[in-house]
Amino acid sequence: MARNVTGCGILLLLAAGFGWTQQAEKNPFTRFEDIAEGRRLYRLDCVNCHGMDGKSGRGARLASKFRRHGSSDSEMFRTISDGIPGTEMPGLWRDPEAVWKILAFVRTLEESGTEACVAGDGDPRKGRELFLNKGSCAACHTVGMGGGRLGPDLSFVGAVRSHDYLLDSLVDPGKDIPPRHRTVRLVDGQGGRFEGVILNEDGYTVHMLDRGEQIRSFVKTDLRQLEKPKESLMPGYGGLLDEIERSDLIAYLCSLTGPDVRAAR
Amino acid sequence: MRFLILLLLLSRVLSAQVTHEDLLRADETPGNWLTYSGNFQGHRHSGLGEITPANVDQLRLKWVFQRRFREKFETTPLVVDGIMYLTVPPNEAYALDVETGVVLWEYKRSLPPKIIVCCGQVNRGLAIQGDRLFMATLDAMVIALDSKTGRLLWESDMIDYKLGYAATHAPLVVKDKVIVGVAGGEYGIRGFIDAYNVEDGEREWRFYTVPGPGEFGNDTWEGDSWKTGGASVWITGSYDPATNLTYWGTGNPGPDWNGDVRKGDNLFSDAVVALDADTGARVWHFQFTPHDVHDWDATQIMVLVDRAFQGRDRALLITANRNGFYYVLDRKTGEFLHASEFVKQTWAERIDENGRPVRAPGKFPTEKGNKVFPMVAGGTNWMSPTYSPRTGLFYVTAREGSSIYFKGEAVYKPGTRFWGGHFRNQDQDEDWKGAIRALDPVTGALVWEHRMFKPAWAGLVSTAGGLVFGGSEEGYLKALDAKTGEQLWYINLGGRIIASPMTYESKGRQHVAVAAGNGLFVFTLPN
């Protein structure tokens, strides 16, 4: 999906509205003290999602050479500086020198791994069977062109989540729920009960995608009850799948590194 | 059962499933706005009649949707069963609750750093069918999004954007095909119109707006000049189910202002092409400005109306062209029926009986510059006109004024400007001004006009309530009496209106929406 832009390197449009900024194609800040400064900045800006080791958390695994949005210095600069539209990765409001130094530190994380998601010894083919049949995962999750809309799109989950994160999510789905997939339950003024994932909440209204994948709109003053429980709509799979099955399923999820969205030409 | 019905009444279910039959019958569901122009015929007319000349002065702001961007906001939203879908520059898409403007999902496209466009990183809107939305992008792709989540379903390359190609208009969905053209007429592209399968994005057909060797019209280009002939396509076409023809206006030939390097008529630039919607085969064409040297794209909305013409009921195609003339054609055959000036023009002595202009002498661009009416942006432009079947009138945003046209060198280098000259607008002259004009669609005669301070970039929508909504360059949204042109209401939105307004219904109330500045503004009558 990511368009690999090469050779256009020197002009980068900073999408946040900074205007045109001239940038080098190669990171000019790679000395030891630059990396140290990059580590300090990473701790401030990046650690919450990516973890200090680049292996854990909600953000893409950085302890890897795999980069969906380009791995050259200029591409990585753009990713860090501008963010990635349509994903949870925001842009940084930092000057170019700071971005380069963060990149210098991120490069050191790459040395500690080679794959986005270390699959372990599970069998991804068996995992796919489990995903489609016993686990009924596709009822709520999309992979490629097919699947449900309630849960996160898993088409490239292997590129952005670690093995441990996926295992946690499988056994304890409420441990970390992306904001877009938080559960909402409510009772409207006439006693109708509704449950789904929240699309919007503001001072006056609530919108959800309900279990039937209908978008529903509510005015808050009409509601008798509104809860946003910390648990996920997804059931825990600790009891449903044994250890080997879980390992197979995770191996399958780790194999999902990009949606096949581009029509075959 | 009773319980189920009750549940449906209590919460508002917002869902969108649009079939081709729904699009064919768009006029029967005026509460929705299903295509860029409101219907396949390009009318931009609404059957809603709650807002009338008697109450329009009570309109009040209902909500505003704002985003931060530097580009022009040219979108027309779609509305389907309680959800509004719109694009925001450069290539973002949003679903909003039509009652509140609350965002239900967003899609932001990651564009390559160097997009090549003449006139801004803009987008004019979406198309819908089933539960899919379709957008054409600045990196020359056609994409499909899930209307419930905004998720990208497929994307198809039209062509390499680095050569100066882009796509900016709202697609047109006819049956199982998404029809889209390419922009890039200032970069020596070779224009085309494509159709992609709604299911998987496979390309089904392509029609080149500049014919290649052996094809009809290639001999209207001297030498190899067809290879960089332009004729881009950047406004949505129309569709006539009776003939299964889809009608598209094409852009200027390249280079813009130096015709010496492309001698000939330069087909199918500055023309309307009528294509079989299933195959893309050309059935007829009509060229408004043969061998154009003033950048007068024919990328206007082609409006399809059924009217008596000289005593005979005819299927007509009507359009006000950037070259300053209003045209009436037979849309089955392309036969020329009528042309008349709707703004001041000095480049043609007349239009002959075949629809071909008889050029006035000495009006081509020169190295020293040559003043010609209309201005380079034309007597009108891409902003939508409207046709009201209720008043029987055609309404158009008219732009009065001239430019000085300069001829220069034209050397083609891929992905760079291929202009062959430049221009200077005479925007300090007394005759630089704007108007909204109502024309008799058969004779082109002026019925009324509403004068404006400057030429505007806002389009028009007419309603069954007897109103025409339009906008001004200074940012005033205004309502005129459709019969008389009397101004009944206006409001300053605080930003340029470079878009066409639309109207929809929610909870039984008529709403009027228009993009202005960095916001989308929505108005209703008080409860």
Q: What labels would you give this structure?
A:
heterodimer, A: 265 residues, alpha+beta, Cytochrome Bc1 Complex, Chain D, domain 2, 8 helices, 9 strands, 29% helix, globular, disordered C terminus, B: 527 residues, mainly beta, Methanol Dehydrogenase, Chain A, 39 strands
Task: Give the helix/strand layout.
The complex is a heterodimer of chains A (265) and B (527).
Chain A: E1 11-14, E2 19-22, H1 32-45, H2 47-50, H3 73-82, H4 96-110, H5 124-132, E3 142-143, E4 146-147, H6 157-160, H7 163-171, E5 183-188, E6 193-201, E7 205-210, E8 215-219, E9 223-227, H8 243-254
Chain B: H1 2-10, E1 12-14, H2 20-24, E2 45-46, E3 60-66, E4 78-80, E5 83-88, E6 92-97, E7 103-108, E8 127-129, E9 132-136, E10 141-146, E11 152-157, E12 172-174, E13 177-181, E14 192-197, E15 203-208, E16 238-240, E17 245-249, E18 271-276, E19 282-287, E20 303-309, E21 312-320, E22 325-330, E23 336-341, E24 348-351, E25 357-359, E26 370-372, E27 386-388, E28 393-400, E29 403-407, E30 421-425, E31 433-439, E32 446-452, E33 461-463, E34 467-471, E35 476-481, E36 487-492, E37 502-506, E38 509-516, E39 519-524
Parallel strand pairs in B: 2-33
Antiparallel strand pairs in B: 3-39, 4-5, 5-6, 6-7, 8-9, 9-10, 10-11, 12-13, 13-14, 14-15, 16-17, 17-18, 18-19, 20-21, 21-22, 22-23, 24-25, 26-29, 27-28, 28-31, 29-30, 31-32, 33-34, 34-35, 35-36, 37-38, 38-39
Written description of the protein model:
The complex is a heterodimer of chains A (265) and B (527). By secondary structure, chain A is α+β, with helices and mostly antiparallel strands. Helices cover 29% and strands 16% of the residues of chain A. In chain A, a hairpin with a 3-residue loop joins β6 (193-201) and β7 (205-210). Classes of the chains: A alpha+beta (265), B mainly beta (527). Chain A binds chain B through residues 1-3, 5, 8, 11-13, 15, 17, 69, 78, 84-86, 142, 145, 149, 153, 188-190, 192, 194, 199-200, 202, 204-205, 207, 209, 213-218, 259, 261-265, and chain B through 6-7, 10-15, 68-70, 82-83, 92, 97, 99-100, 102-114, 139, 146, 148-149, 151-157, 196, 200-202.
